[in-house]
Amino acid sequence: MSATPNIERSHQRTKPTYKKRLILVLCVLALLPLAEKTMSTAQAGVFDSLLKILLPFYDDDRSLGDNPPQDTNKDSDEGTPQTAEPAFAPIAPSTPDELDEPNIEEHGEYIDDGTDDDYLPNADTVDIPDIIFDDILNAHDSTPMLGYPDLYALLSAEFGVDRGQIGESLTIYKAESFTANATAVFERALALSIEYETPEQSLAFARAWQRQNPEHIPAWFYVAHLALKAGDYHEASTMLAMILDYDEKADLTGILTGIFPQNPDEQRQLFTALQSMEDDNPSLSVLRAGLLLRLQDYAPALAYINKALEDEPDNLAFITLKIDILKESRQESAMWAFIRQKVKELPTIKELHLYEIRHEIDMGQLGRAWDLLQVANRQTKDPDVALLTALVGLDIGKYENARTVLTPLLDVPAFNSRANYYLAISYERSGNLTLAKEHYEKVKDYEHVLDARTKVVGYYLAKDDVDKAIATLVRLRDDFEIYAIDSYLLHAEILLRQDKKTEAQNLLTVANREYPDDDRLLFASFQLLQNELSDDDKRFAIDKLLELDRMNPAYRLADIKLRLSQNPNDLSALEGAMSLAQISSDDPNYDPQLQLEALIVLGNHALSQGNYRAVLDYLEMPYEVAPDLNAGITLLHAYQGLGESDKVDRLLADLQNRFAFGQNRTGQEVQEY
After folding, report:
1. Which residue has the higher pLDDT, 229 or 161?
2. For domain 533-671, is the CATH number 1.25.40.10?
């Protein structure tokens, strides 16, 4: 890549073996920075409560046999990157770089045939320039030493970027970009400048490079883009005029991508700069319309976009902008008429169909959306439209129709997994659990595989086939490491439901060793062993959990329980329990079970203080909504404290009926409650 003086004479007099040595030296030099960087891993019914979580439709009185109804329409089945362009991508005409093609005559007539036949032992090497060996460009020197980009300097600059030495690396890249045949170096330098420098600095660099390389058309677009970004509207209009003079139909829409001024005054300045350019370019009309839309000047915006659409009536970006202008100006009738007109003119464009379809879905009109989707699916033959059609069909109970739409998607690799997932749902809702399981087992995409495999586990547990359920979980963590923790947790839960506490403990120990910093595994182990841990061990585990996720409500509640067990009057802990009990249902951290546990903590504290009315305030309503054994026992003590024997009898009977409470106790022991 490096150029040398007297290169023709060097080729004529330097023999192949010496050339091989020279290449070896250059390779060693190029690898030096990399070397520096390198030197500097069952019993029936025992799973009922778990199944109600895994399979929301599960009914323990319902038969889940092996002979469900069969569907006659079943179908069978899925080093450091270099930035080649700046962060934005304005569209520009591609022009060949005349300097990119090597000139063979410039390099002499010697051809290396791979042999040493012409090797002269005493060949004169005086013409090999010393710069190749001992005058390499220093990282702090911004002056290019060679006529072409210096490979060693570029490698040093790129490694510098990795090390965070942005300033030095940018200096090298910018300097090397001004050498011959350095378009790629310029684009890398500009990308770094845009990422790490101000728009003004990036504009100054791009402008200087463009003036040295005036025939490089893409640079005109870069300068125009950066001038707009830096607010230099005079420079921007100058470059836009150059572009339009070169190609009056040039697509300018990419130039303003993501850089529309936010300040109304700047928007007006830009509009004025664009107005000074008398041109019929449709992209220019669109830019003006977009600015006027932001300025809420809808009438002229509509005029400009209509002018652009006269030239390019099928341009989806132009159509979308007109829809936005009509929508923002509250011309809904005109907007829907325009959309329907364009759907007729361009029936294969899915985006046009989806405007009205999504509107109907947002309005809850799923029946109307279903009708529109039938037309859109037939006209566009687009898999995205087909998938949306199936989803709406599932929501309105058209399971057979949804399967008809989903089945062809099994042959589309990008949609195969999702098609299997929604086919499984359709069979599940139709009651055909065998086919549902078959399709759930074929789901492979990360978004749906956890839910699908969890359903499969539920089906096996419903038939007391624990071995297959566990095998499914093992396969899940083998195939999808991202869900390994979920697999371990559900596996441990199954073992606990079988009263295999030791096996569950051993499994979680293995999981914690494999994923030592995962708080969910640590918390599961803590819950399993907390009755066997000392207070010091509990404190150590809880502190670790809070260190990993200080705002997790479950970890905060564990901390509160431990503090109150050591000091029942810890006001800070009581305030924390109250805050957890008051989390609203629309809060992302809301968990009804955790909220109930916080209320039980408050109820038990009130009970210890003899404040029985407070216990009722905390727990009476929650128990009615979701009966819980611990909440019921605390309420029972409060009723006894208040002498309300009728409520004691009713609640005791309910506890015995729901939770078999006291069935193994004598009448005297039950009476103690």
Report:
1. 161
2. yes
